[in-house]
């Protein structure tokens, strides 16, 4: 699937350790609404310190307000995202990538977007490419058909969103850090929020041992700086022209409008329950 990126121009934007988790969410949405030429892509790379990015279904658990204190007790900022499924934890050991582009072909399917990101990750980590599998890890947080795992332990999850002819394919990758703690926090969130109530939605029964970091799974030391170098190497191998992204006045104007709406939406979900 990587051939779909060959010879394109990538505008790379980085927001590293940005404090407010709504900022990269709004930025991805702004990029998705930005008009791109067919040969253009945007690569958005970001990290967040101690955030809980939850999905709209998470806000519907019976004791949502009480469960939110799981995040506050662990010094995490909760935010409700508009892409993907259920909740994930983000901190400085989690790298987030988003590829934004016009649909590379008329019948570009959702699965092709997932396959593209899977192949991209395998290219970034060639030492693990044969071991990386894409299937649902049911007892992870935010389980999905394209969870990425090694030996049955999930280290990444992929989400996707489309508007007209544009698509954003996003992934979070657990590089290093305490993955057990991340999973324990999400498990507590659901344990408190559901409290053995009978519900129709299929929230995950989280088992922390089914998730791990790439650092542990590959047996190598990883840093965000290392991954950025790896990404540049992959892009160069695809004859991609790399440019540092520059925010235009129109992009900034659109971002401001999007951020305001996301902030209002976030406040509604976090305060009105």
Keywords:
single chain, 273 residues, alpha/beta, BirA Bifunctional Protein, domain 2, eight-stranded mixed beta sheet, three-stranded mixed beta sheet, 23% strand, globular, BPL/LPL catalytic domain-containing protein, Octanoyltrans_LipM/LipL
Topology:
Blueprint: E1 9-15, H1 22-32, E2 40-46, E3 51-54, H2 64-73, E4 77-80, E5 88-90, E6 94-102, H3 110-124, E7 132-134, E8 148-150, E9 153-163, E10 166-174, H4 179-194, H5 214-218, H6 224-237, E11 241-244, H7 249-271
Parallel strand pairs: 1-2, 1-11, 3-4
Antiparallel strand pairs: 2-6, 3-5, 6-10, 7-8, 8-9, 9-10
Helix pairs in contact: 1-7, 2-4
Continuous helix count:
7
User: Largest beta sheet, briefly?
Assistant: 8 strands, mixed
- Give the strand order, joined by hyphens, for the main sheet: 7-8-9-10-6-2-1-11
- For the record, the CATH class is Alpha Beta
| Overall average pLDDT | 94
Shape: globular
Strand content: 15-25%
- Sequence stretches where pLDDT stays below 50 over 5 or more residues: none
Kindly state the percentage of residues in helix.
25-40%
Going by CATH, the architecture would be 2-Layer Sandwich
CATH superfamily: Bira Bifunctional Protein, Domain 2
Radius of gyration: 18 Å
Number of strands: 11
Number of domains: 1
Q: Any idea of the CATH topology?
A: BirA Bifunctional Protein, domain 2
N to C succession of SSEs: EHEEHEEEHEEEEHHHEH
Distance between the termini: 43 Å
**Which structural class do the helices and strands define?**
alpha/beta
């Amino acid at each position: 699937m990587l051939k779909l990126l060959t010879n394109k121009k990538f505008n790379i934007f980085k927001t590293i350790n940005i404090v407010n988790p709504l900022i990269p969410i709004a930025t991805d949405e702004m990029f998705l609404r930005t008009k791109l030429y067919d040969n253009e892509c945007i690569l958005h790379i970001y990290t967040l310190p101690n955030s809980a990015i939850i999905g709209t279904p998470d806000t519907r658990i019976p004791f949502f307000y009480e469960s939110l204190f799981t995040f506050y007790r662990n010094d995490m900022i909760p935010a409700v995202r508009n892409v993907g499924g259920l909740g994930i934890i983000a901190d400085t050991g989690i790298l987030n990538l988003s590829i934004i582009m016009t649909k590379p072909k008329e019948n570009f399917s959702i699965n092709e977007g997932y396959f593209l990101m899977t192949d991209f990750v395998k290219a970034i980590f060639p030492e693990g490419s044969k071991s990386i599998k894409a299937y649902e890890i049911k007892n992870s947080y935010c389980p999905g058909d394209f969870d990425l795992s090694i030996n049955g332990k999930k280290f990444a999850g992929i989400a996707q969103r489309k508007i007209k002819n544009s698509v954003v394919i996003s992934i979070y990758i657990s590089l290093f850090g305490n993955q057990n703690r991340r999973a324990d926090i999400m498990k507590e969130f659901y344990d408190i929020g559901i409290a053995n109530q009978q519900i129709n939605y299929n929230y995950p029964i989280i088992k922390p041992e089914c998730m791990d970091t790439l650092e542990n799974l590959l047996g190598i030391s990883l840093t965000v700086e290392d991954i950025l170098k790896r990404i540049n190497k992959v892009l160069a191998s695809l004859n991609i022209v790399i440019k540092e992204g520059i925010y235009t006045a129109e992009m900034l104007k659109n971002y401001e409008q999007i951020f305001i709406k996301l902030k209002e939406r976030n406040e509604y979900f976090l305060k009105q329950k």
